[in-house]
Amino acid sequence: MVQRDGDASLDAAFVLKWIRELASQIREQRDYLTQLDAAIGDADHGINMDRGLSQAISVLPDAQGRTPGEILQAVGRTIINTVGGAAGPLFGGGLRSAGKRLGDRPTFDAEDLLAAMRAGLESIQALGAASVGDKTIVDAYVPALEAFERELRAGRDLASATARAREAAEEGMRSTIPLQARKGRASYLGPRSVGHQDPGATSTALLFAALERATRTRPAATRERP
User: Fold this and answer.
1) Is it the case that residue 1 has pLDDT exceeding 70?
2) pLDDT at residue 5 in the model
3) What residue ranges do the domains of the chain occupy?
4) For 8-216, CATH number?
5) Residue 125 to residue 142: CA distance in whole angstroms
6) pLDDT (0 to 100) of residue 224
7) Count of CB atoms within 10 A of residue 178's CB?
8) Burial 147-172 (b: 16+ CB within 10 A, else e)
9) Residue 82 near residue 108, CB atoms below 8 Å
10) How far apart are CA 48 and CA 86, in angstroms?
11) pLDDT score for 219
């Protein structure tokens, strides 16, 4: 029988591709992210995220022979240690928790990825105490995760699940524009935060876009089973 892409084993090479794609997209959008943050934050989100992901990329050569979970944990720790403000602990902590959820297994599947991403969200919410509607990372992350799970439950493959997750993350990102911030630095502005897209939600959309890209560019995963 043919193994569906969504059932295929993912490995360290996939995680490395995902992180490199994320770093590339953050680099490309660095100035835009900083402009978004200039309107409702400290005008350093893009700079900080680029610095953290660039540092994470620099440690990836040392990740050879490490498991997917270990790589995500290492990347998360690097981001925590190098990204300033709340973004470092939130994004880095989320990736580190996702890595811990994967454990020390050499490969994982789409269901494991869902569980890992859910662990990442739980970490973010535990630290930031944010819910959907607060104009934060969570506004993009929650709908992305829900879309990813819906696709898997409907029997769709990994490519479809990551594509729908990316679309939902982008919709969640845009949904922050009319919101008044209730958490983070932007909440200090009160009504003045309305009309601006949240930079953290934007970076989260890039995280899921990078995941989709890593899925689409990996070697074909369908193969015949005995």
Assistant:
1) no
2) 47
3) 8-216
4) 1.25.40.340
5) 10
6) 32
7) 11
8) bbbebbeeebbbbbbbbbbbbbbbeb
9) no
10) 10
11) 62
